[in-house]
Request: fold
Amino acid sequence: MGFKGFGVIAIGILASASLISRFVAQEVLAQAVSSTRDGVYTADQAKLGKVLYQKQCATCHGAALQGKGKSIPLVGNVFLNKWVDQTMADLFMKTNTTMPASAPGTMTPDETSQVLAYILSVNKFQAGQKPLPTDPDGLGAIQIAKP
Ligand code: HEC
Reply:
């Protein structure tokens, strides 16, 4: 192979490397980088979640989510500081598997997302067009941030 042939191969390698890195960058972007600030639940979900919350959560966490005794607040800095930089998948897991503490694991995935939508709304995150998902991948792509 002459010098010229080597050059052609080198350019070929460089071109495919840049294609690959562009592809990887797009994949990463497609997966993550939305946050609770980006309108990640619908107003309808939050409305259903409010009814659910009042029935199943308010006795312990308070009508205004302020917390009561051992039942810690679900609103404000105490709550958000604990969850900030985790994802909605973490909060979903915790809620779906351990709450309501009187009957853990009795909420369906849809109900869990509705009640979380309500909790987000009370924490002053805006609603959007897309419902809060119920699958681990969708939820895991939503970072918990401060409003
Ligand atoms: C019988 C009382 C009781 C009921 C009812 C209840 N909780 Fe809780 N909840 C607790 C207690 C106590 C804790 C704190 C201990 C823990 O984290 O497990 C807690 C913690 C939580 C946490 C974690 C908060 C944090 O910052 O770590 C979430 C989220 C939560 N509850 C949501 C709910 C939702 C949503 C409902 C209604 C579907 C509900 N809870 C109903 C008692 C209750």
